[in-house]
Write a structure and sequence with these properties.
The protein is an alpha+beta fold. It folds into two domains: 310 residues, Lipovitellin-phosvitin complex, beta-sheet shell regions, CATH 2.30.230; 139 residues, Yope Regulator, Chain: A (2-Layer Sandwich). The chain has 13 helices and 20 strands.
């Protein structure tokens, strides 16, 4: 198949980076309705979205802040209790002392109000909102109990229901991980393995008001099996070219991934490393007989493909895969032994339509280390939408090469259709977390992609070194 290598290079290992940025009123209404609640969309006095909804027998409101054209960065959950005798300052102060994430106060009639402000700039809106909503519901129960309103909801505190831990690593703390990566691709009887090991260091610094999590690797060793001998040194060289380069990751106040701060400095380094590998690939494939001759037809488009792979959106998707996963469980907030299943939309690394995803999360006690927790996060993007994005990018990349060649263009369409018939993509991330520090002690990230009889499994592992 002429374009199998091209499509394999384009296919994302996973669509882990969900559509990030601002959130809208209709989107939050949809999330509430998916959770089983009724919700009414209105406007506040400033013209920003306002949602009227209810939980635990209480009507409450969700206000939107930092908005531009009805798309906003932050939400505020707000409820007031109408008490016959009001509440006291001691009751409110006691609640504020005992509970995190929210604040309470008294109005001029001594009625207590509860407010919880949250940001919505996480890459995964659905998961973030589900966590916020769960925290809010538990706080409502604790608040009504503390204020003596209607008996509350059993008086169970949020801390008793959900597992939380600090956001880590803290500024000034450097964590060192033994890391490994294995890429195993197989087609029929053919199999190629690329394995690497390195030392990865992660630390947090504040830079110009930004919170930056810095990643760098060193001492990288590479082993390649099943590739053309001429290509093995090029693959190893491309991987080792990133030794010592620092990746700056922007983090939000809750420890969530926001973006890569130094993408402009990394892009030329990536281009140089990949261009050397592509040049060796072109030479090696020319010696492989019929398959090499077929692939030579798209050799003229290699530079165009390289530029597309190094475009900011696609490159960030590649570089952010591990930082996004690593920071996903920051702060905790999940119930123990409860499986969370939710639908989301992921941003295509090639632009265009978002990709529907089915995700699950499950937190349990670790069987390996007493006192630690294990979290399993699974992401399964909709295969047809994912393949449509890959095929669309392939058409765009080889369009110049096939311009005016009607027969070749028709053949490309046939081959892409055949390749996409069994398309499947999924990612499973397994964490072991120390709840006392919030530090990820161990993380295994397994991404699977399959199409056209070809399967590729990429496994990345981080294991914290003992201090």
């Amino acid at each position: 198949m002429k374009y199998a290598v091209l499509l394999a290079l384009l296919a994302p290992a996973s669509v882990v980076c969900a559509a990030d940025g601002l959130v809208t009123g209709p989107a939050v209404v949809s999330l509430l309705e998916q959770a089983g609640y009724s919700a009414e969309l209105d406007e506040d006095g400033m013209g920003d979205p306002l949602i009227l909804t209810a939980a635990a027998g209480l009507d409450y409101r969700i206000y939107f802040y930092d908005c531009t054209d009805d798309a906003c960065e932050a939400l505020q959950f707000r409820v007031g209790l109408d008490l016959v005798d009001g509440a006291t300052a001691e009751m409110v102060n006691g609640f504020n002392r005992d509970y995190r994430y929210a604040r309470s106060f008294l109005d001029e009639e001594s009625d207590p109000f509860l407010l919880m402000d949250v940001e919505m700039t996480h890459a995964d809106h659905a998961a973030q909102f589900a966590t916020h909503l769960g925290v809010w519901e538990e706080l409502l129960g604790a608040f009504t109990t503390a204020m003596g309103f209607g008996g509350g909801s059993g008086g169970e505190s949020w801390e008793e229901e959900r597992i939380a831990w600090p956001v880590a690593p803290q500024a000034g703390v450097q964590l060192t991980y033994d890391s490994s990566h294995a890429s195993v691709s197989s087609t029929g009887d053919e199999r190629m393995e690329i394995r690497s090991s390195s030392v990865t260091r992660v630390w947090v610094e504040e830079d110009g008001g930004e919170v930056l999590q810095r990643w760098t690797s060193s001492d990288t060793g590479v082993e390649v099996q099943g590739a053309p001998p001429e290509l093995e040194p090029a693959i190893a060289s491309a991987i080792q070219a990133f030794d010592g380069i620092v990746l700056d990751v922007r983090l939000g106040a809750e420890g969530n991934y926001l973006g890569i701060a130094n993408l402009d400095r990394i892009q030329p380094l990536y281009l140089d490393a990949m261009r050397g590998m592509f040049q060796h690939m072109g030479s090696a494939l020319g010696d492989l007989g019929e398959e090499g001759e077929a692939l030579a037809e798209v050799e003229a488009g290699m530079e165009s493909m390289l530029q597309a792979l190094a475009s900011p959106q696609v490159l960030e998707n590649q570089l952010a895969e591990l930082p996004v996963a690593y920071n996903f469980p920051a702060g905790g907030g999940l119930q123990l032994d409860r499986e969370y299943a939710y639908q989301d939309e992921g941003a295509s690394p090639f632009g265009g339509e978002t990709i529907p995803m089915n995700n699950t999360m499950l937190l349990s006690t670790s069987q390996q280390v007493p006192g630690h927790y294990e979290l399993v996060w699974t992401i399964v993007p909709e295969p047809e939408a994912t393949w449509a994005a890959i095929a669309g990018a392939a058409r765009q990349l080889v369009g110049d090469v096939l311009a005016g060649e009607e027969e070749a263009g028709a053949l490309l369409e046939q081959e892409m259709e055949a390749l996409g018939r069994d398309a499947h993509f999924s990612t499973t991330v397994t964490y072991r977390i120390d709840p006392y520090t919030g530090v990820v002690q161990h993380m295994e990230h397994v991404a699977t992609k399959r199409f056209g009889g070809k399967e590729e499994i990429e496994t990345s592992v981080l294991s914290l070194r003992e201090p």
